[in-house]
Amino acid sequence: MKTIFVTISFLIGLLLGGCSFTDFGSLNEDPNNPTKVEPDFLFATSIKESMNLYGGDMNRVIFFNYTQQYSGFQGSWQRFNYSDSENNAYWKATYVSCMQPVNKIAETYGDNPTYKNRALIARIWKAYLISQTTAFYGPVPATYALTGTPRIAYDSEETIYQYLFSELKHCAESLDVDGDKYTAKYDFIYGGDIVKWKKFANTLRLRLALRIKLADENLAKEVAQEVLSDEDNTICHEDESATSHWGTTSLTWSPLYERVVNKAEANKATTPVLCETMVYHTKPYNDPRLTVYGQPAQEGPHKGEYFGQNISYGGSPEGFPVEQNPHQGLDQQDYSPIGSLFLKPDAEWVFLSYAETAFLKAEAAYYGWSTQKTAEQYYYEGIDASFAKYGLQGSAEAYKQTPGIAWGSASDTEGREEEFQDFAHICTSAIKANDYFRQIVMQHWLAIPMQGADAWELLRRTQVLEFQPMFASYEGTVLYMPDRLLYPSDEYQANTEEVTKAAGTLNGKDYLYTVLSWGIPAKKNPNLPAE
Question: Which of 204, 271, 274, 316 is the most exposed place for a label (fewest CB within 10 A)?
Answer without folding.
Answer: 316
